Every structure is written in C-alpha cells, then in structure tokens.
Amino acid sequence: MIFSKWWSIPGALAVLLFLVCSTDAQQPRPIDEITNLAENVYLFRHQSHQAIFIVTPAGVIVTDPISPDATAWLKIKIAALTDQPVRYVIYSHHHNDHISGGSVFSETAHFVSQQAARPKILQAADPDIPVPDLTFTDRMTIELGGKQVELIYTGKNHSDNSLVVLLPQNRLLFAVDFIPVETVAYRALPDAYPDDWIESLKQVEQLDFDTLVPGHGKVGTKEHVRLFREYLEALRLAVSEQIRHGATLEEAQHQVRLPKYEPWQSYADWFPENVAGMYRYLSQQAKK
Ligand SMILES: [Zn+2]
User: Fold this and answer.
1) How far does residue 99's CA lie from ligand 1's centre (Å)?
2) How far does the centroid of ligand 1 lie from the alpha carbon of residue 158, in Å?
3) Cα of 142 to ligand 1 centre, how many Å?
C-alpha cells in the first residue's frame, strides 16, 4: 500500500503537470485585456490591437479607441477604475483600424490628432470616429490631474500624420505601426514614406524614455527603435542594390534575404511584401 502510494505520486504529478500545461496552451487569449504598465498607466488590448490609457484625479486620457466593440468594453472597465470621465481621446494616426469607436466618449472628451490626420478623418465621415477638435503641427502638451502627456510629430513614416505619445513622468512612449518591436513592417508598406520613416525613427531615438509600447505585439524598450531603424536601412540598401543591377520585382523578392531578422515576428509572411513595398517606393523615387 505504502509502495503503491509512493510510486503513484510522480505519476500523479506528471498527469497534473500535463493537464496544467495542456489547458494553459489551449486557453484562448482573451479578446480584451487590461494590464498595468506604470502608476495609473494601463495597456488596453483588443484582439491584435492595443493602446494605452491614463487615469488621473481630473479625468482619463485614452489613446486609440480601436473599435466600437473595444470601447464598449473599455468604457465599463474605466468606470470600474475611476468615477472620472474620459477627457481626451488621442488618435495615433488616421487609420480606422486603430481609431474607430471613440464616439462612446464624445459627450466628455476632446479628440486630438496631428493636423494632417483631420482632413482624412473628416473625409472618411465615419460616425464611430469623431472628428478631432484639437490638432497640432509639431508638438502639444496635455496636462491633466498632475499628469503630463507630450504629443510629438516626428515626420512622415507609416503615415503622414503619426504622432507619438510620450509620458515623461513614466519614461514611456506609445507609437503605433511605425516602430514594431522585433517584428518586420506591415505587408507592402501601404501608405508609407520609407525615407522619411528612417528620419522619423532617428528623431524618436532622440527622445527621453525607457519603455516602448507599440500598437501591436510585445512591449519593448527604447533600444527597439534603433533595431527597427537598422532593419529599414538594411532593407532599403538590399533592395536598392537589386534595382541598380536591373532586377525585376520578382527577382528582387527572390534574391533579397536579411537572415539577421529571420527570428523576428512575421518575417516569413511579410518580409517578401516589405521587399515589394520598398522596391515600388525606390523605383518611383528614381523616376522623380
Ligand atoms: Zn496604420
């Protein structure tokens, strides 16, 4: 009896461990998730999109609302954290997959974007995307409840109106779609300005912060800005060499490999598209 018990313990542990691990692996990631990044600063994730929000004693500052589904849930979660209303909604750039759904906050909030985003949002005329009533060209500071929020335009990159949100007190930067963390760029660089993008990243490298929060994927550090800039530079150089040797787009896609970046997220799927985007951009630039 004693022997059988003694022998059964490792067996039971193994079964238990297997169950724990397998349920863990099978557990679907929740659609919506809120995690605490710093004091009163939260990461809000909805499917593959994410944004930050800041709770202060004088109101809440929300960045990209993401979608109506996302904000329906977010509004409830914010109300559980504070009785203060949302005072500002900051749009990172005009792409609607990041900024839809803010209308649930329109009774109490100002909507903020970089200047060039406004006409595009106006033109889209989407009732779920309130038109910004506050815009700026280079820099804007929001001070609310003792919290300082710097909005900075670092030039064209993934769009012509991407802003970064800098929280100097938390040494944290939120930047969407143009500084992915150890991830290649999105598909064929739609809507992008690759040369300005590289310059824009150099400007971000001059800012003072430690934590980098992107609009998709894992949270990183300031170091990831340089790594992504070096990736874009390497991509640009490799593709421009192909063009110089008269390679067609298909040949360039076949030839260009950047093995250093193979471990990065989405390399297998998007790297050939990144090559295509850069190829089209550089070919057009050469004609100018
Ligand atoms: Zn975008």
Assistant:
1) 10
2) 7
3) 23
Kindly give the distance from the C-alpha atom of residue 94 to the centroid of ligand 1, in angstroms, as a whole number.
7
The separation between CA 160 and the C-alpha centre of its own chain, rounded to angstroms, equals 16
| Coil, helix or strand at residue 172 | strand
190: alpha, beta or left, given left = phi > 0 and alpha = psi -120 to 50? beta
Give the β-pairing of 110-114 and 220-221.
Answer: unpaired
209 CA distance to ligand 1 middle (Å):
23
| Residue 182 DSSP SS3 | coil
pLDDT, one tens digit per residue, over 182-223 is 999 999 999 999 999 999 999 999 999 999 999 999 999 999
Instruction: Say how many Å lie between the CA of residue 177 and the centre of ligand 1.
Output: 5
Ligand 1 centre distance from Cα of residue 159 (Å): 7
Distance, in Å, from the CA atom of 111 to the CA atom of 89, rounded to the nearest integer, reads 5
Report residues of the chain scoring pLDDT below 50: 1-25
Give distance in angstroms: CA of 93 to centre of ligand 1. Answer: 7
Of the candidates 172, 130, 148, 132, the one whose C-alpha atom is nearest the C-alpha of residue 42 is 172
Strands (E), 118-194: 134-136, 139-144, 147-153, 163-167, 172-175
Geometric angle at alpha carbon 199, from 195 and 203, rounded to 5° = 160
Give me the domains of the chain, ranges plus CATH numbers: 29-177 (3.60.15.10)
